[in-house]
Design goal:
Strand content: 15-25%
GO biological process, one term: NAD+ biosynthetic process
Distance between the termini: 19 Å
Family: In the C-terminal section; belongs to the NAD synthetase family.
Pfam family, one: CN_hydrolase
Strand order of the largest sheet: 6-7-5-4-3-2-1-14
GO molecular function: ATP binding; glutaminase activity; NAD+ synthase (glutamine-hydrolyzing) activity; NAD+ synthase activity
EC number: 6.3.5.1
Helix content: 25-40%
Shape: elongated
C-alpha cells in the first residue's frame, strides 16, 4: 500500500452450475490464497456463486436463498483477512432480481453494486431473469439493511486515493459505461465482474475495451471473467482475466485456464495523472454513495517491473519505428521555422559528440524537406584546449560525409586573449576557464550565422537541461534547439538508427562517435585522450533519465523514485550509487531552473519536456521538495 501501490487480483474459480456450496468453497480458497499473496483487492466473475449459465433456475427461490447464504459464508470466512472482495451473486430487491457484486471486507458485507445494462440479444437473455436498479437503495438481509445500487463507491479510510467502483460485464460494452461517472466521482480502480463467452476474435476486442476504458478514465481496471465450469449447452467461457492501468496491461491470463492473476496498481500515479489533466471530469453532484472500509498500510511486495530506460522502447521494431517518428518530428519543427523566416542557411557547431551529430542529421533532413542544398548547412568546428584528435577527426569526417559546408575556426587564441583581458590565470582550469570556451564557441556561431544569413541550430538535449549541464549564454543558447526534448539515452539510439540505415564512411563515422565517451572537452587531453568524461562528473545518464521521467511525468516523491530505481536497476547499480546520483539530480535540477526559464524554441516530441512556454514552469528560487 505504501507509495500508492495496491496489489490486485482477478480470480476465476472452478464452479458447478447451481452448486453454490461447491462454488463458495472454491471462492473462499482463492480469497485465502490471494490474501496470503499480499493482495488487497480480489475480483471474481459475474454470478460466480451460482454460475452465470443457470438459465431459468434463477427463478427458483432455493437457488437465490442458497446464494445469499453463501454471501454470508464468504463474509464470515473473510474475517481477519485484509482484502477487499467482490463476488458475483443474484440479489433479490423488492419484487425484482438484480445481477450484483457483493463487496465484502474483513467479515462484513459493505454493499451490493448492481448491474446497470442488462443484455437481451444474441446468446444473452438476462432480461428474462434480472432487472436493473436506476437508483441506490437498501436491501434487508437477515434483519440488517445493506446499500445496493449502481452508484456505490467503496473508499479506503487509510488510503484516500484508493476508491473502488464496479461495473458488471455488459456495463463496459455500452456507449457510456458506468465507469465514466464512477471515476468522475473519484474511483481510481474499477472492478468488472464478467461472464463474457468466447467466440472468434472476441478476446482481442475485449482487450481493446478494457485498455481504452482504463485509459479514458485514467484508472486501474480489474476484469474477472467466467471460465470452465459454466454450462457449455450453448456457449464456452475462457476465464479471460485482465488487469490494466491507464491503458497499459499489467497482467492477463491465458485463455481457458482458471486461476488467479495479480498486478500492482499505482493509485497515486493515477491521481497525479488526473490532476495534470485539467479536463478530467470531477463530479461534485454527490450522486455516488460512499461506503468506507479500513485497511492496513504496509509496503507492498512489488511484482510490477519498472523500465530502467523509460524513454527507449525495448522492442527493436518499436524502437526503430519510434526513432523514425522522432527524427521526422525534429526535422519538421526546424523545417517550419526555416520556412517561416525564409532562411536558406543555418550554422551549427560540430564537436564530434552525440548531440551535435544528431542535430546535424536532423538539420540535413529538414533541408531535404525544404529542397535546399546541403551546402547551406554551415557546420563549424572550433578546436580549443580540450579538443582531442578523435573528436576533431570525427567531426570533419561527419561533415564531409553529409555534404555540409565545413568551417574550421580555432578559438584557442581568442579564449587566451579573453582570459588575459579579465585577469584570469590560464593555468587555473576552473569554471571560468571552461565557460569562456563555451561562450566563445557560441559567439562564433552567432556571428558566423549573421555573416552567412542564417540561424544557429542548438544541440543541447533534455538531460543536460534538467541537470543544468550547459554554460549560461554559451551552449545554452541558440535560435532553435532541435534536441531540447530528447533525453541523452534516446539521443544515442537516434544516432544508432541513422547509422543502421546508412552505409560506407558515414556509418563508420557514426559508429565511432557512438563509441566515444560523452564529454564537453573543455579541459586539456590526457595522453591524447578525453580527460573530462561527463558521466563521471554528473553521473550516469541512464540513472538521470530514469529520475527525470518519474519526477516530471508523474511528480513522484524522491523516496518513491528511489524505491522504483532500486527495483529497475537491481544488479546494475547498488543502492548507494543510486542514492548518490538521485541526491545530485535533485540538487542540480532545482539550482538550474534559471537556465531553463529562458531556453530557445524547440519541438516537443515526447510526454516530458522542460519548455517554460509549454510543459514545465517553476520558480528559479524554489526550495527542494522531496
Amino acid at each position: 500500500m505504501k507509495d500508492g501501490f495496491i496489489k490486485a487480483a482477478a480470480a476465476t474459480p472452478e464452479i458447478r452450475v447451481g452448486d453454490t456450496a461447491f462454488n463458495t468453497k472454491n471462492i473462499i480458497e482463492q480469497i485465502r490464497q490471494a490474501a496470503e499473496h499480499g493482495a488487497k483487492l480480489i475480483v471474481f466473475p459475474e454470478l460466480c456463486i451460482t454460475a452465470y449459465t443457470c438459465g431459468d433456475l434463477f427463478l427458483q427461490s432455493a437457488l437465490i436463498s442458497n446464494a445469499i447464504d453463501c454471501v454470508f459464508k464468504i463474509a464470515d470466512a473473510s474475517a481477519g483477512l485484509d482484502i477487499l472482495i467482490a463476488v458475483g451473486t443474484p440479489l433479490p430487491v423488492n419484487n425484482s432480481l438484480c445481477n450484483a457484486a457483493a463487496v465484502i471486507k474483513d467479515g462484513e458485507i459493505l454493499g451490493f453494486a448492481t448491474k446497470t445494462h442488462i443484455p437481451n440479444y444474441s446468446e444473452f437473455y438476462e432480461a428474462r431473469h434480472f432487472a436493473p436498479l436506476s437508483v441506490n437503495t437498501t436491501v434487508t438481509l437477515r434483519g440488517r439493511e445493506y446499500p445496493a445500487g449502481p452508484k456505490l463507491l467503496f473508499c479506503c479510510e487509510d488510503m484516500p486515493d484508493f476508491k473502488v467502483g464496479t461495473e458488471i460485464c455488459e456495463d463496459l460494452w455500452v456507449s457510456s459505461p458506468p465507469s465514466g461517472y464512477l471515476t468522475a466521482g473519484g474511483a481510481t480502480v474499477i472492478m468488472n465482474l464478467s461472464a463474457s463467452d468466447e467466440v472468434i476474435s472476441k478476446a482481442e476486442y475485449r482487450r481493446s475495451l478494457v485498455s481504452s476504458q482504463s485509459a479514458r478514465c485514467i484508472c486501474g481496471y480489474i476484469y474477472a471473467d467466467a471460465g470452465s465450469g459454466e454450462s457449455t449447452t450453448d456457449m464456452v467461457f475462457s476465464g479471460h482475466n485482465m488487469i490494466y492501468e491507464n491503458g497499459a496491461v499489467l497482467n492477463q491470463s491465458k485463455l481457458f485456464e482458471n486461476g488467479i492473476i495479480y498486478a500492482d496498481i499505482d493509485v497515486q500515479r493515477i491521481v497525479l495523472d488526473r490532476r495534470r489533466m485539467n479536463t478530467f471530469e470531477n463530479d461534485f453532484s454527490g450522486g455516488l454513495q460512499k461506503i468506507f472500509f479500513k485497511t492496513e498500510i504496509n509496503e507492498t511486495r512489488l511484482e510490477r517491473t519498472f523500465d530502467s530506460r523509460p524513454f527507449v522502447p525495448r522492442d527493436r521494431e518499436k524502437l526503430t519505428e519510434r526513432c523514425e517518428l522522432i527524427f521526422t518530428m525534429q526535422a519538421e519543427g526546424l523545417r517550419k521555422r526555416l520556412s517561416h523566416i525564409g532562411c536558406k542557411t543555418v550554422t551549427i557547431g560540430i564537436s564530434g559528440g552525440l548531440d551535435s551529430t544528431l542535430a546535424l542529421l536532423v538539420t540535413l533532413r529538414a533541408f531535404e524537406k525544404l529542397g535546399l542544398p546541403t551546402s547551406g548547412v554551415n557546420a563549424v568546428t572550433m578546436p580549443c584546449f580540450g579538443t582531442t584528435d578523435r573528436t576533431y577527426n570525427n567531426a570533419k569526417r561527419l561533415i564531409a560525409c553529409t555534404g555540409a559546408s565545413l568551417a574550421e575556426i580555432p578559438i584557442s587564441e581568442a579564449v587566451t586573449g579573453h582570459l588575459r583581458d579579465i585577469g584570469a590565470d590560464i593555468n587555473n582550469h576552473n569554471l571560468t576557464y571552461e565557460n569562456s570556451q563555451a561562450r566563445e564557441r557560441t559567439q562564433v556561431l552567432m556571428d558566423y550565422a549573421g555573416e552567412t544569413g542564417g540561424i544557429v541550430v542548438g544541440t543541447g538535449d533534455l538531460s543536460e537541461l534538467a541537470l543544468g549541464w550547459a554554460t549560461y549564454n554559451g551552449d545554452h543558447m541558440s535560435m532553435y534547439g532541435v534536441n531540447c526534448s530528447i533525453p541523452k539515452t534516446l539521443v544515442r539510439h537516434l544516432v544508432e538508427y541513422v547509422a543502421a540505415i546508412s552505409g560506407g564512411k558515414l556509418r563508420q563515422t557514426l559508429e565511432d562517435i557512438l563509441a566515444t565517451p560523452v564529454s564537453p572537452e573543455l579541459l586539456p587531453p590526457k595522453d591524447g585522450g578525453i580527460s573530462q568524461e561527463t558521466e563521471s562528473i554528473v553521473g550516469p545518464y541512464i540513472l538521470h533519465d530514469f529520475f527525470i521521467y518519474n519526477f516530471l511525468r508523474y511528480g513522484f516523491s524522491k523516496s518513491k523514485i528511489f524505491r522504483l530505481a532500486k527495483s529497475a536497476f537491481a544488479g546494475e547499480y547498488d543502492e548507494k550509487t543510486i542514492s548518490k546520483w538521485l541526491d545530485s539530480f535533485y540538487k542540480r535540477f532545482y539550482q538550474n531552473q534559471f537556465k531553463r526559464s529562458c531556453i530557445p524554441d524547440g519541438p516537443k516530441v515526447g510526454t516530458v519536456t522542460l519548455s517554460p512556454r509549454g510543459d514545465f514552469r517553476m520558480p528559479s528560487d524554489s526550495t527542494i521538495i522531496i
